[in-house]
Amino acid sequence: MPVELLPETPSQTAGPYVHIGLALAAAGNPTREQEIWNQMARPEAPGEHIVLVGHVYDGNGHLVRDAFLELWQADHQGCYDEDYNQDKPFNGFGRTATTFDAGSEWFAYTIKPGVVNNSAGVPMAPHVNVALFARGINIHLNTRLYFEDEAEANAKDPVLNLIEQPQRRETLIAKRCEVEGKPAYRFDIRIQGDGETVFFDF
């Protein structure tokens, strides 16, 4: 009996679907009352409040102005909470997108995560898990954002140390900066080419 291959479905194709369905403001559409977006932490949330910001570049070094990102992280104590509720001061899941304006940056307003133990009980450095969706990418790309001022923890991180070339690890390190006077970290993602961001297969 011959094996029938199934064709790709819209869920595997970023195209316009992602922004129309999940990034309404970026697509120029009215937003919904219960929107999962880039305000992950309210002012009353405990922990160090930070801004995450960055660009997305293609293999030619051009800005990708219609990229969509999902972020998932632990709280300031290193605990993941799978119960998303917009009434809570902090949710460890958020969404953001690059824009079509001159800056074409994505932003997320959150708190700095704490140290998390992996399934083997080994501490992992503070990090944010990032899923990237963009035109030309049929299956989203997974990466991680680490913090440059956590050098000691980064040096011991079991995931970073899986990357054999030290210079490649640098593509996962967000640089400390300021955004509108607030502590921030810049994390630029390069999909291909020189300085390509490390992506994970999981």
UniProtKB/TrEMBL annotation:
Residues in coiled coil? none
| Pfam families reported for this sequence | Dioxygenase_C (PF00775)
Family annotation (InterPro entries): Intradiol_dOase_C, Intradiol_dOase_core, Intradiol_RC_Dioxygenase, Protocat_dOase_a
Q: Which UniProt keywords apply?
A: Dioxygenase, Oxidoreductase
Q: Which domain of life is it from?
A: Bacteria
Q: List residues traversing the bilayer.
A: none
Which residues belong to any copy of the Intradiol ring-cleavage dioxygenases domain?
A: 52-80
Q: Which family does it belong to?
A: Belongs to the intradiol ring-cleavage dioxygenase family.
Q: What is this protein called?
A: Protocatechuate 3,4-dioxygenase
